[in-house]
Structures are given as C-alpha cells and as structure tokens.
Amino acid sequence: MIGYVTLGTNDLARGAAFYDAIAKELGTSRMMEFPTGIAWGTPGGGAGVALMKPYDGNAATVGNGVMVAFEAKDKEQVHRLYDIALSLGGSCEGPPGPRGDSFYAAYFRDPDGNKLNAFLMTGPV
C-alpha cells in the first residue's frame, strides 16, 4: 500500500551516512539520488525511504506523531539497527525489547530528529 516515505533533512550528507548504514543492514541501498535528496530501497521491493531537503527552501522540521518503521528479520537485527542509529548521531526513544506479547521493537531518532522504529512481529496478533 505505501510506495515510499519521505523525511526532511537540514544536512543531507550527515543524513546520507545514517541511512546508508541503516539500508545496508536491511540489505538494500540507494536507488535514486538528486542534489537535494536520496532514496533508499529496492526497485520492485517493499516501501522505500527518501531523505530530502524541503522543496520550499524552509528548514526541515519533525512531524509530531509521525514515525517510520523498518521491519527486521530477527531480534538481533532490531538491536543492530538501534546500535547503528545511535552510533551515527541518532538518539534513543526506547531501547530494544518486547512490547506486549507479539511485538519486539526499538525506537530511535535520526540526526534530524525524525522518529524511527525497528520491529519484529514475534507471534500472532
């Protein structure tokens, strides 16, 4: 249903390093690049994510209540994604761990403050 998600940035080079590492851990890479933005994903695959300087030229801001979730293949990958994020200037919004009976997740923000999540469904919903 979702084709891709675009997040704003005020520092494309810093954000690119962050999302290059996240994409690599998820087994994908850059698929489009422009002077004002980059998109990561696999053509014909699941939804991708793009990081762009705002078109209107104003500063990028964080959407209150907005979050992008990356589906992990196992609990270890949830931890690796969280560790990658924090090592590249991200901040913790909730360390890896179970959330209820069937959901395992970590919450973090990218260097621009966009909220992200790495998750794994661990059982029936």
Distance between the termini: 20 Å
Q: What is the CATH architecture descriptor?
A: Roll
Shape: globular
* Major sheet: arrangement of strands: 1-4-3-2
- CATH H-level name... which superfamily? 2,3-Dihydroxybiphenyl 1,2-Dioxygenase, domain 1
Helix-strand makeup class: alpha/beta
Q: Strand content of the residues, in percent?
A: 35-45%
Number of domains: 1
Mean pLDDT: 95
Q: Helix segment count? A: 2
Poorly predicted runs of 5 or more residues: none
Instruction: Sketch the major β-sheet.
Output: 4 strands, mixed
CATH topology: 2,3-Dihydroxybiphenyl 1,2-Dioxygenase, domain 1
Helix content: 10-25%
Number of strands: 8
The CATH class is Alpha Beta
Summarize the structure.
This protein has 2 helices and 8 strands, in the order βαββββαβββ. It has about 120 residues and is α/β, with parallel strands linked by helices.
Describe this structure in words.
This protein has helices spanning 12-25, 75-87, and strands spanning 4-8, 29-34, 37-41, 48-52, 67-71, 91-98, 103-109, 115-121. With 125 residues, it is an alpha/beta fold. The protein has one domain (4-54, 65-121): 2,3-Dihydroxybiphenyl 1,2-Dioxygenase, domain 1, CATH 3.10.180. The chain has a four-stranded mixed sheet with strand order 1-4-3-2, with helices on one face. A four-stranded mixed sheet has the order 5-8-7-6, covered by helices on one side. A hairpin with a 6-residue loop joins strand 3 (37-41) and strand 4.
